[in-house]
Design a protein that fits this description.
626 residues; 4 domains; 23 helices; flat
Length: 626
């Protein structure tokens, strides 16, 4: 005897397709125009170029999968779960001679079919065009389809899970949008509030940043794409490991959605949150987010000093607002105990921050405990060449002690007052035996303290005077290794832009290697090396590549004059790899490295050699007299 129940209902499946046809029809039409029709319109000929255009069309269109999945995955889930959001339709589906499991499977598969069947049709049409042109379209079209199906599987399943959790159709897109970006939103809120509260706070570190990115699916899946290699005429997927991970997560989401749907109560239709065990999470989660966001906004209006109080007040109000959404009434003030509890907890947290219970603001490491420091620093005395200290890892004990001295001055003098004429922006990441600690300061100090031991000016000047350190920073150490291994300098450029008051346009020069400007001409390789040796001599004598505290030199002028020494550090001994973009317009050159260093009026040895090469330009710059 046949059973009166089923695990899949074909009639319901077909009904969904006929009822919600605008979703799959619009998705199909958009993709037909975006891929096969666009390829036919743009590359209708049978030339080799049209075949490459075919591959580029497949590759470039794959980037749109993410955005289509974000929106059409939501639309499909809203359609097939719409029966949950009204008591009449929920009771009707509950009375069908189909098991709960069957309804779940039917609705899920029909919604997924809305967006997958159009992808299959588009892939077939695109493959047919490829065969007609003599291309090899099977693997490219399968790769395109695989990226599309995988991306859609994750976002559709995620939206489906959000839809099962709620009993209101408008709550589904709200939850879906919020949860897709919840991690980064909460992270930015916490980061902003703590940065306002803790002097020197520099973020939570790379590990937390990476975790937050993984909890923001769109941020990771944007790295999933296709690429075309002109040499091998092959289309390959990139970032497919990310897609596989999120597909595995989607399987977990699907299992959770299945059990939630199976035990869902029909009377929850119309509720913002359908399951009681989720209601406290929703209530207090909304309270904390509202408290952090509106607390920060309000304090920006009435004063930063009010931030802790505003966060507590808005947390309490946010708790009542969440209760109103859950109870669907404004009469929620009788449930004040939960609001009081979350308010007390938030007040305790903000008190710990304000009072610096953890000692965050006053912490300064001991030099012997620091293994290395990753540092970035910027002052008004920056020469914008390769000597800028940006994300530099330091292990030299002398430099580490100087950095700790600057850190200590920032802690002891957070708002240096009278006489401060120098500013320093510094970021420090200490690596110790117990892990990493980050700090960031905008420090003001007196340049006149440059000879006073223990001051920020003294420590910064000691860093500037460390020629061995800057030898590494500029890249001379690496260049010397290449020269010792038999490599050779490839070319030298002199970049210059006239900054004087003379308005004669003929006195404006610009020599850039990749801009088509002049490259210094040498009669022999020995002459090229003589310029390099002159720069080295000036460097160790403190006449070039030298920063100074309280420097009154014309940095704008010095930043306009640079030497670039090109050399190769790869196994091809400097062979250039020229890569054109899709329109064959822009050129990127790989296989080259160079050192850029600003030419100063004091660099007499360097100027002496340059005078033999470009005497007139040096005279126009005021570096040499007539």
């Amino acid at each position: 005897m046949r059973s009166g129940t089923s695990f899949f209902d074909w009639t319901l499946f077909k009904k969904n397709f006929s009822r919600f046809w605008p979703i799959w029809a619009s998705y199909l039409v958009i993709w037909l125009f975006a891929l096969p029709i666009d390829i036919l319109a743009s590359f209708g000929g049978r030339s080799i170029g049209s075949i490459e255009g075919y591959y580029f069309g497949v590759v470039s269109s794959a980037n749109a999968h993410l955005w289509f999945a974000l929106f059409y995955g939501l639309f499909a889930a809203m359609a097939v779960l719409s029966h949950l959001y009204a008591s009449r339709s929920a009771n009707f589906y509950g009375a069908l001679p189909v098991r709960r499991e069957g309804i779940f499977l039917t609705q899920y598969l029909s919604g997924y079919a809305f967006v997958v069947l159009p992808q299959i049709i588009v892939a077939v049409f695109t493959a047919v065009i490829g065969f007609a042109w003599g291309a090899a379209p099977v693997l490219p079209c399968l790769a395109w389809l695989g990226v599309g199906m995988g991306t859609m599987f994750f976002f559709y399943t995620f939206a489906f899970l959000c839809g099962v959790f709620t009993g209101h159709i408008l709550a589904l897109p709200a939850f879906y949008a919020i949860l897709n970006g919840l991690a980064v939103m909460v992270y930015e809120l916490i980061d902003t509030v703590i940065e306002r509260s803790y002097y020197g706070f520099a973020g939570f570190g790379d590990a937390v940043d990476s975790l937050v990115e993984w909890l923001t699916p769109a941020a990771v899946l944007r790295h999933v794409d296709l690429s075309y290699n002109r040499r091998t005429a092959a289309v390959a997927a990139g970032g497919e490991e990310y897609l596989l991970i999120y597909c595995a997560v989607a399987v977990v989401f699907l299992v959770c959605a299945f059990f939630l749907y199976k035990h869902r109560k029909l009377e929850s239709a119309g509720d913002v949150v359908s399951y009681r065990f989720v209601r406290p999470v929703f209530k207090y989660g909304v309270a904390v987010c509202v408290g952090l966001f509106l607390g920060f906004v309000t304090s920006e209006i009435i004063g930063e000093a009010t931030l802790p109080v505003m966060v507590v007040i808005w947390t309490v109000l946010g708790c009542f607002a969440a209760q109103m959404l859950l109870d669907k009434t404004f009469r929620v003030f009788k449930k004040w105990k939960g609001a009081l509890a979350v308010g007390v907890v938030m007040a305790a947290v903000m008190a710990c921050v304000v009072l610096d219970v953890t000692g965050f603001e006053t912490w300064v490491p001991d030099a012997e405990d620091v293994k290395s420091v990753r540092v970035s620093l910027s002052t008004r005395s920056n020469l914008y060449d390769d000597g800028i200290i940006n994300d530099l890892t330091v292990t030299d004990p002398r430099v580490i002690e100087d950095l700790i001295t600057i850190h200590k001055n920032a802690v002891e003098h957070p708002a240096f007052g009278r006489g401060a004429d120098e500013a320093l922006e510094i970021s420090l990441v200490y690596r110790t035996a117990t892990g990493e600690r980050s700090r960031r300061y905008n420090l003001r100090f007196r340049s006149s303290d440059v000879n006073t031991s223990g001051t920020a000016a003294w420590a910064l000047e000691d860093i500037y005077a460390n020629r061995a350190l800057y030898w590494e920073i500029y890249g001379f150490a690496d260049l010397e290794k290449q020269l010792a291994a038999g490599k050779r300098l490839k070319a030298v450029d002199y970049d210059y832009t006239y900054l004087g008051n003379n308005t004669d346009p003929e006195l404006s020069y610009s020599y850039f290697a990749d801009g088509g400007g002049a490259r210094l001409a040498f009669s022999s390789y020995g002459d090229m090396m003589s310029l390099y040796e002159a720069v080295k001599k000036d460097f160790f004598e403190g006449r070039i590549g030298m920063y100074r505290v309280g420097d009154d030199r014309d940095y704008d002028s010095m930043n306009s004059r640079k030497l670039r020494f090109y050399y190769s550090a790869d196994e091809t001994d400097g062979q250039d790899y020229v890569v054109l973009d899709d329109d064959q317009q822009y050129v990127s050159i790989y296989g080259k490295q160079y050192i850029s260093i600003s030419v100063t009026p004091e660099s007499t040895n360097t100027l002496e050699v340059l005078f033999r090469l470009i005497p007139e330009e040096l005279k126009d710059q005021g570096l040499l007299s007539e």
